[in-house]
Amino acid sequence: MTRTSTLKKIFSRLKPYTPWLLLTVVAAVVSVAGQLMAPLFVGRAIDGILGEGNVDFAYLNRQFVILGICIAAAAAGQFILSLSNNRVAYHVLASLRRDAFRKIGSLPLKYIDNRAYGEISSVILSDAEQFADGLLLGFTQIFTGAVTIAGVLVIMFVMRWEVALVVLLVTPLSLFAAKIIASRTYKMFREQAEARAKQTAFADEMIAGLKVVKAYTHEAANEEIFSGLNENLRKKSLSALFLSSTTNPVTRFVNSVVYALVALVGALLAIATAGTATPFTAGNLTTFLSYSNQYTKPFNEISEVIAEFQNALACAARVFALIDEEEQTPDEALPALGKAEGNVKVENVSFSYSKERRLIENMNFEAGAGKRIAIVGPTGCGKTTLINLLMRFYDVDGGAIFVDGTDVRTVTRRSLRENFGMVLQETWLKTATVRENLCMGDPTASEEEMISAARAAHAHGFIMRLPHGYDTVLGEEGSLSEGQKQLLCIARVMLCHPTMLILDEATSNIDTRTEKLVQDAFAKLMEGKTSFVVAHRLSTIENADLILVMKDGNIVERGTHGELLAQGGFYRSLYEAQFDNA
Q: According to the model, what pLDDT value does residue 508 have?
């Protein structure tokens, strides 16, 4: 994304805050006007005390009163400027983060699967924050600086064009130096943001998998990798900051030259015009020297801001890139599926994660309403991929999946998924109370229904042993084992009473005794429901109505447990491998 397109998107984000931006402009003008008028009255006061017997205290009092009014107006304008600018900057930040977070929910899973979670988090949190800081600082300094420069030039030309011309002729040197440096810093700050995101992603990944890291004594190797990422970030940061920091010394040198030239030309002009009708007085020289400082100060401030502003643009580009990512195929205009009976048909389905490697090709099977379908096979054969297609986490490349004769692509994803209950091998519970986690699928469930589901999943006992029972906040007040988390996930599905069930190794983290109890509960839950059970322990699916045996993305065998054993094929070899010791 180019700087021009990024700026256009920033301006479109600022458009709703036009009234506040106008207030910012007015406050900036008032603040700058107050600051610009002050040197005039200081110069007049100096002229009012030069010479013997020339002190007019009444005149001086008037000048000081007006000077005080100017200072007060400048302070009030600056306060309002900061207030309104803060409001705009942080409202824009909030809307950016809200849109970015909402975008994640509408992105295809392919985008999430192909990126580190920490990198996405870095964009939403770190990049958005740095963009807001740069916008806040940059807009204030750049706008007030521009108004100050224009105002000073106008006043100086009105007062004495000869001295003003000297200032104007030297100014392009400062602008030229700043432009050259700024044109090179944007790319560097973008590389810095990308390096920071990689470091954040790796740290997030290591913390999430710290148990595995310690189990395999991989700490030293990870430290080495992190050091490499840290060194890369250090180099990118130093390159960007070093180049951007040269702007300030360069502009300060030019500004010092401007001040010296104003003092020299002003002093010569004062000598040359002494005794004339329009003398250049000491007070005028003092005023011009003050104006030369006021004129050059914005260049210093702007040069300091340029680095921050370039960084903000680079971070903004990353945030907008996320927000502009292509969403999954929209389905808002599609009809809802309604309450399904549970007849599922997979017809000539093909799917692959990449064009180079095909996975599922021409898959066909039917699952009648209320039937129990087991899916077995070695790791990587496509079992979980099939589940993702049934839930429409991914869309098929070819063929179609039908529920009650309706192509799932012709109904909304929400209505399709409301008919499914899903328990995965990997548990997921949010930082909230046990009650909120259980009722996620059915927020309207009563207390009795929730407790009944927890009892059926054999979770009620350990829930009541938590500090606050069902009101315990998980992750803060209560720590659960993986098996207990799995039981909560099972109870959550039981509470929804879905038409169709997907169980992907749902009892893998549960001990043998509890697994037997939960399997009995599942047997009752699956009565009258179409169920898809992914299992590695083949003993758990012996009563399935249909077993699909998958290998390399294809269904190589199908039938009941007894039929498949009788065939003496791939399923039997898997079954015997698990029970060879028996």
A: 67
For residue 334, is pLDDT > 80?
yes
Q: What is the mean pLDDT of residues 478-501?
A: 84
Name every residue whose Cβ is closer than 8 Å to that of residue 410 and which is 6 or more positions away in sequence: 334, 335
Inside any domain, residue 338:
no
Digit-coded pLDDT (tens) for 122-158 = 888 888 888 887 776 677 777 788 888 888 888 888 8
DSSP 8-state code for residue 404? T
Interaxial angle between packed helices 447-456 and 482-496, expressed in degrees from 0 to 180 and rounded to the nearest 10: 130
Dist CA 561 CA 555 (whole Å): 15
Burial class (CB in 10 A: 0-12, 13-18, 19+), 536: middle
At 54-80, the pLDDT tens digits run: 667 777 788 788 888 888 988 998 888
Are residues 398 and 348 in contact, defined by beta-carbon separation less than 8 angstroms?
Answer: yes
Q: Could you list the residue range(s) of the whole structural domain that residue 393 is in?
A: 344-578
Spatial CB neighbours of 117, under 8 Å, sequence gap ≥ 6: 201, 204, 205
**H-run or E-run covering 316:** helix 282-323
Given a cut of 60, is residue 582 above it in pLDDT? no
Q: Given CA atoms 206, 212, 215, 216 in this order, what sign does their dihedral have?
A: negative
* pLDDT at 581 exceeding the cut of 50: no
Tokens of 522: 């599942």
pLDDT at residue 183 tops 70: no
User: Do 204 and 156 lie in a common domain?
Assistant: yes
DSSP count for the chain of H helices, then E strands: 20, 10
Give domain status of residue 335, yes or no.
Answer: no
Please tell me whether residue 346 adopts helix, strand or coil conformation.
strand
Q: In what order do the strands lie in the sheet with 360-367?
A: 360-367, 344-351, 398-403, 406-407
State phi, psi for 255 to the nearest 5 degrees. -65, -40
Structure tokens at 558: 């199908």
Residue-level pLDDT at 53: 61
Rg over CA atoms, the chain:
36
Look up residue 248 and give its two tokens: 């300030």
pTM of the model: 0.61
> Does the pLDDT at position 167 exceed 80?
no
Q: How far is CA 408 from the centre of its chain?
A: 31
Residues 349, 317, single domain; the answer is no
Tokens of 164: 């003003």
**Mean pLDDT, range 230-258, rounded to an integer:** 78
Residue 366: enclosing H or E segment and its boundaries? strand 360-367
Based on the domain organization, do 159 and 223 belong to the same domain? yes
- Dihedral (CA of 104, 105, 110, 115) sign: positive
What letter represents residue 450's amino acid? M
Q: Which residue type does 499 have? A: T
287 secondary structure, DSSP code: H
Lookup: tokens for 507: 């009892």
The count of domains in the chain is 2
The whole-number pLDDT of residue 175 equals 66
Residue 463 has which token pair? 């829930």
Report the pLDDT averaged over residues 394-412: 91
Q: Are 276 and 232 in contact (CB under 8 A)?
A: no
